[in-house]
């Protein structure tokens, strides 16, 4: 594959043609905020946090944009930082993210991104939807109040576990992640209880039953372990 | 003693037959066959199912999912994405008020409000006695006749709140 | 069937039609039917059979004739005479006009119901795509063929290479009629150049704009025109399968298209070995299920494949990787409707209509506060004033024109100061609106622009697929602010926040729906800023629409 040269934040960088921009940015040590992206899962391009400014002034989500020869990229323009902050505010206002009483307090990716960007208040109306919790599964629980609809759970269940228990119902702001026929998790016939969805969830929407405030921590390394094993017959302990 | 192939055949026939014996399933099966059980035909099959049964019950969604060999959540996700599909039983009569731009500019919202007040039913819902379902549509494509509504399949042009109420009363009783 | 058979069929049908001394065309499209069109058609047939005039007079149920608010419409054709168009026909008027035109007795034609051909409604229009609409029975293939139908396909298959077809379309200057205005020929050529064992052609008949019905009317009135355009496209790009995606709300259109496809297949105009050439092309109809976002091409493809209609980021573009990962050509049905005339009359003919950058004609669904509403086809570059005052007959009740809304929820409002703007892609864009798919809603002084912006925002909020955050949550927040402005509880800070949100949603959303959702707000702020301030600062709705019953909450909330 050919090598292309692009300009990232005024520096010349070369990369393999066809590589996704986000990977190149991370390789360069540039801190890029992401929520729906997770190494090992298919790209979604939904959270829009990883957007960058191209030479033309257009904004593109770097997680779904392949690098091109001569590309000029700005990752932290004033406009981008402002927009990222607004997007995070929109997410916090959408459902009920009360960090102080959340199982993921201190380990939550949404919280991290907000802290990193310095988001200290929300200027929009809190929508305060009336959302349920599902604690019918023997080991895990689902709290729609914390869900940001990144669909990592949907993708990991479909792509890695192969069970496709999860999907999204409805549309727009009324979208919800669902199990089977929008039924109680504990009654699901297709769920293998593998817990992958819980581990990849960036917030406190999916957690181990019994965890209390700030107790839940998640790890994603199993994704690399499984994928390397599946694709290359290599199980690398350094990654685990 | 039956030969093994005969046993297989009997078993397969039993699988094909819907336990309910409801002839409406034959309509769904016809659509399934027309599309050779391709998973891409999910929306077409759901259209047929809704036409035959009036709404998509859980049982129906499970049936479609099994026939197309799709996960349940996939089928449920598709059925709830599109506004055309309804998962709740519909009333005996239905009234769809167009809320497209042309109708909106000509005050279609007042018609909806009048019906809502009279029958105590919000758009997208059915009265408790199951007589009337009220719905709004994005656009019925008859903008020249705004405001438009469809009462039990009949397109009524240039409606007013009073006129609509009288019409609906006549129909629903 | 081959080319000679096609000619023979056309001649046979023409002779058959001319054998009638009088043909009475009755509009049988939804607007006319719901104003009593069926009774009119029945009355006409009754008079014919009562008089025993079956051999001389023919009654035909046709598609849309245009001035929908004047329906039911009837057109009378007599060989060697100009067509006479009747408006607001009742059963009695129908009986009178049949008797008069059939030349029987001393009956006098009901002249007070005649809409003169010189009326500006007709005179200012130019029918290219709608040339057959209202003149043929959409259920009869022969009617279409008699008016030169499928001749362009036969010509292309026989006389042109796929490359030449693409070049012809490029030369014609035709641009996508779905709204964005991408040059159609370039798109075709991109798909043509892709190497693949399978390619697809898709026609988008999922009318996005909630105030428009051009696509429905075209599909219902002249289905073969679209099929022919798709077949030519299939030949040009090397596809053998087409999909016609029809909105779920349009069952009549879907049924007519299905019937038209079957009729064309039976005659060898579609299917395998089209017109005895080596070209195979089949078309399947797919019914949408009510999702505005499916007008976006990637969402539309997802829907055709039976998925949730959620868009996916581009690139890759459908031309490279579309349906089932194969190169796919997607055009609006109106675009396909322009193809046959271009092939038939040549690119130069088409390029002469319109302006320097926008060629040809455009269909608009004229609606709202205007005397004559209906479906019109005008040359690009016509001024808005001509559409509103000449074709539309001005604003009723002596009220003043306030704005024209084009492009629906993705477009904007054009104020009176710009009435003389030529209607073309660039001019409308410069005014902050878009050409859109062809909805045009006229508003008078009783329309509140903030309320209109709120209406469109509610629409976008409802129709957002929920995939990307800016559109999913941003539209809700924008709608909330607009609601506050119209109920009287907004503060000046709200207006600033609204504008910031608009820019963010416009620039960061994943697909066209989100990117254009703020347009109605931005354009009304641009031209009617004083209305926004009147609501917020003076607590007053100039149009008298908004109730403004609430008060802003005190400053302490933000402090």
Main beta-sheet annotation of chain C: 5 strands, mixed
Strand adjacency order, main sheet of chain C = 2-1-3-4-5
- Measured between the Cα atoms of the first and last residue of chain C, the distance is 79 Å
Average pLDDT metric of chain C: 93
Taking the alpha carbons of the first and last residues of chain B, their distance comes to 63 Å
Strand content of chain B: 5-15%
Number of domains of chain B: 2
Q: What is the overall number of helices of chain C?
A: 22
Residues in β-strands, percent of chain C: 5-15%
CATH topology value of the largest domain in chain C: Rossmann fold
CATH fold name of the largest domain in chain B:
Glutaredoxin
Radius of gyration of chain C: 25 Å
Under the CATH scheme, which class of the largest domain in chain C? Alpha Beta
CATH architecture of the largest domain in chain B: 3-Layer(aba) Sandwich
Low-confidence stretches of chain B: 1-15
Helix coverage percent of residues of chain B? 40-55%
Total strand count of chain B, please? 5
Provide a compact summary of the structure.
Chain A is an alpha+beta fold. Chain A has six helices and ten strands; from the N terminus they run ββαβββααββαββαβα.
Q: Key terms for this structure?
A:
heterotrimer; B: 173 residues; alpha+beta; Glutaredoxin; 2 domains; 5-stranded mixed sheet; 8 helices; 5 strands; 12% strand; elongated; disordered N terminus; C: 559 residues; alpha/beta; Rossmann fold; Ubiquitin-like (UB roll); 4 domains
Task: Report on the architecture of this protein.
The complex is a heterotrimer of chains A (240), B (173) and C (559). Chain A is of the alpha+beta class. Chain A has helices at 21-27, 78-94, 109-117, 152-161, 196-200, 221-232, and strands at 3-8, 11-16, 51-54, 59-61, 72-74, 133-134, 140-143, 166-169, 176-179, 206-208. Chain A has six helices and ten strands, in the order E-E-H-E-E-E-H-H-E-E-H-E-E-H-E-H. In chain A, the strands form three sheets. Chain A has a five-stranded mixed beta sheet, with helices on one face. In chain A, strands 6-7-10 form a three-stranded antiparallel beta sheet. The radius of gyration of chain A is 19 Å and the shape is globular. The model of chain A has no long low-confidence stretch (mean pLDDT 95). Chain B is an alpha+beta fold. A five-stranded mixed beta sheet of chain B has the order 2-3-1-4-5, with helices on one face. In chain B, helix 2 (24-34) runs antiparallel to helix 3 (42-53), helix 4 (58-68) crosses helix 5 (72-81) and helix 7 packs across helix 8. Chain C has four domains: 18-118, 3-Layer(aba) Sandwich (Glutaredoxin); 148-351, Rossmann fold (3-Layer(aba) Sandwich), CATH 3.40.50.11540; 361-444, Roll (Ubiquitin-like (UB roll)), CATH 3.10.20; 449-557, de novo design (two linked rop proteins) (Up-down Bundle), CATH 1.20.1440.230. The termini of chain C are far apart. At the B-C interface, helix 3, helix 5, helix 6 and strand 5 of B face helix 2, strand 10, strand 14 and helix 17 of C.
